[in-house]
Every structure is written in structure tokens, then in C-alpha cells.
Amino acid sequence: MMNDALGATLKIATAGLQAQSTRLRVVAENLANADSTAVTKGGDPYRRKTVSFDSMMDRSVGAEVVKVKQIGRDRSDFRLDYDPSHPAADDKGYVKRPNVQPLIEMMDMREAGRSFEASMNVIEQSRAMMNRVVDLLRG
What total of structural domains would you count in the chain? Predict the structure, then answer.
């Protein structure tokens, strides 16, 4: 009975780790492309990616776990910079820049890191409880 509860706890925490790992990867990709431009004249640059989550019933543990629902695209407007000498400038001299805001990405990264850390703490505590049970049984 206790082993089942600890196993379920570990599966729930692992699902959280996987979801936040995906979120961190997407944030890192957004930050890496924050200053990129299009490769063609007047073309669109990198468009910020977003992650949405959903809960899913995991029948093996009898509880809902978090899953990545979708990796989407932020449809907000691109930034425009006037730079007629840039190879990606349009006919009016404007260069489209990604709709990535590094401050927003850093806040998202921090939140994902905290969620990741919380899931790791759950796993560590579950492991410590299992070790205590084993020690008691040896006792």
C-alpha cells in the first residue's frame, strides 16, 4: 500500500519534471533567437514559441498528471526597426525583429525552474521515505 502511494507520487513528480523540462527548452530557444532576423528581404523572423499544459488522468497511479498540451506560436506583432541597409529590410527600410521579450522569457524560465525544483524535492523526499521504510524493515 505504501509502496503504491510512493510510486504514484514519483510518477506525478516525474510528469512535472518532463513538462517543465519542455518549457525550459522552449524558453531557451526563444532567448537564443531573440535577435535573429529573416534571411530574405521583408521576410518574417523567428516567432516566439509558447507552451500550454493540460492535466491527464493516469490510470496506473489513479491521479491526474501534468502533460504538455501544445507548443504553439505567439501571434503578437513583430518589432520593427528602421535599418534600410540591413539585408532583411523591406521596401520602406524596416526590419522585422522577433516578438521575443527577453524579460518575459527570463521570468518564464525562473518560474519553470522553481516548478522543476519543487518536483525534484518531491522525488527526493519520496526516496528518503522509501529508505526509511527499508531501514525499519531491516531493524
Answer: 1
